[in-house]
Recover the amino acids of this structure.
């Protein structure tokens, strides 16, 4: 839609429209006028840098922020040092994500002292966390704009206010029912894209801050999703990833009945799309219908990210995960029976309050029985405002690390054995980029999400090609194009 709108033809002297997204295009036009003024004063266009600190949904949001900035005239830069406007799209799932942002803000403060005209913005999940805004107001007064997750679509409007005001602009919403997606986006890859299908989460796992900062579940209209994917396919996209905090519960709040399995069936019909991925899936909501759709599909990638978090039924209950160890293993058995070649990856938390070495043994038992292709293993991170943060029996750091090391070793051992089974096979890889260490090699991604590096030309980028998996190197392959 945005490609059809000429911002220079919008009357910025009229009152702004009330309806979205027309209102945001009005403010984009106002911002473009500011950018032209900058160019006249400085003899160049301003540069912007958007840095993403979070998940795939954050990355998609960052593409929208970059798209709006490009639409109004900014040149996109990768480094803060050269930017006239820097925006951090933050995460708050773990404390170290917060600390990374605060650490980087110190660097931005130094940059702004050298270049007082520089603008700085913070947005994303961390901004929704209690106490964050107060800390920024008190200790980081050089920040120009602060907004959260619910009003990211208002970015152009907030930018216009920032350009007109000589003060910190703070706009944090506690919730919203609005879904506004018809805005510019600057995709990192021209041949693949994420698509938001829902927002928020209703699960309230006791350790997780996400429902408090992202809000309750809201599903997009399936017609809007399918229209967006069709437009992406027409623009050369061959692989899409459907995004949501829990995609398995898609459609529960829609008037027109459509569940996630039904949506996948419709997406598969879209010509031009050759690969379909999705994340993240909650085990309690993964239906036999979804397993059947995946098994029958020629486009859905043979990869499923299925967070375990813990193998102890007792700890799972304390986490409010609403499944047991046995139920998780039974689900995996049904998945593997229907889709024998599927790659399973997972998330694991070590050190949840009250966890004992015996509970860690239960987690290790599940890892061995499932044989994950990869697992993202984390130390428990205490998040203020979650039930787990107030629990007694917080695990000492040394005990956490001991359990983490034990889990990580088994994860790595089992994953290597699983991935090594592919040696000698020829599989299709989507060529994503030149290898960072060796420009004579291309880097491709298999349908099961494993990376393979092989000799090739940059002209292959964006194509799906057959690659012989010659040498296993530990979580990736060296191969040759067939």
């Amino acid at each position: 839609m945005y490609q059809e709108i000429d911002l220079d033809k919008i009357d910025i002297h009229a009152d702004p429209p009330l309806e979205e997204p027309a209102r945001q295009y009005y403010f984009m036009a106002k911002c473009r006028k500011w950018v032209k003024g900058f160019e006249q004063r400085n003899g160049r266009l301003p540069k912007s840098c958007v840095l993403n600190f979070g998940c795939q949904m954050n990355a998609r949001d960052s593409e929208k922020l970059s798209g709006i900035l490009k639409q109004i005239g900014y040149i996109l830069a990768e480094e803060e040092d050269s930017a006239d406007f820097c925006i951090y799209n933050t995460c708050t799932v773990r404390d170290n994500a917060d600390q990374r942002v605060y650490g980087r803000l110190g660097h931005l403060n130094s940059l702004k002292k050298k270049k007082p005209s520089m603008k700085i913005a913070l947005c994303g999940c961390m901004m929704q966390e209690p106490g964050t805004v107060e800390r920024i107001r008190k200790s980081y007064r050089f920040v120009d704009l602060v907004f959260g997750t619910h009003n990211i679509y208002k970015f152009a409007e907030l930018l216009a206010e920032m350009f007109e005001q000589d003060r910190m602009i703070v706009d944090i919403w506690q919730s919203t029912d609005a879904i506004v997606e018809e805005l510019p986006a600057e995709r990192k890859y021209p041949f693949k894209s994420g698509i938001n299908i829902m927002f928020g989460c209703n699960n309230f796992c006791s350790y997780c801050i996400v429902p408090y900062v992202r809000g309750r579940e809201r599903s997009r209209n399936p017609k809007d999703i399918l229209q967006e994917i069709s437009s992406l396919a027409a623009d050369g996209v061959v692989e899409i990833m459907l995004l949501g905090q829990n995609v398995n519960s898609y459609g529960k709040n829609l008037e027109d009945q459509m569940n996630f399995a039904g949506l996948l069936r419709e997406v598969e019909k879209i010509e031009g799309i050759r690969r379909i991925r999705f994340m993240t899936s909650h085990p309690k909501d993964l239906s036999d219908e979804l397993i059947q759709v995946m098994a029958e599909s020629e486009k859905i990638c043979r990869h499923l990210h299925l967070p375990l978090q813990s193998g102890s039924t007792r700890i799972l209950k304390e986490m409010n995960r609403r499944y047991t160890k046995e139920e998780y293993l039974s689900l995996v058995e049904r998945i593997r029976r229907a889709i024998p070649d599927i790659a399973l990856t997972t998330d694991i938390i070590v050190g949840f309050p009250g966890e004992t070495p015996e509970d860690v043994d239960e987690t290790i038992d599940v890892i061995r029985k499932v044989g994950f292709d990869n697992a993202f293993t984390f130390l428990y991170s205490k998040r203020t405002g979650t039930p787990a943060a107030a629990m007694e029996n917080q695990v000492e750091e040394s005990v956490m690390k001991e359990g983490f090391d034990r889990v990580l070793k088994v994860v790595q051992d089992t994953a290597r054995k699983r991935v090594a089974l592919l040696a000698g096979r020829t599989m299709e890889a989507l060529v994503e980029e030149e290898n960072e260490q060796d420009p004579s090699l291309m880097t491709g991604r298999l349908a099961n999400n494993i990376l393979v590096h092989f000799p090739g030309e940059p002209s292959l980028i964006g194509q799906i090609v057959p690659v012989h998996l010659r040498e296993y190197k530990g979580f990736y392959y060296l191969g040759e194009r067939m």
Notes: The chain has 14 helices and 19 strands. The longest helix spans residues 397-420. The mean pLDDT is 95. The radius of gyration is 23 Å.
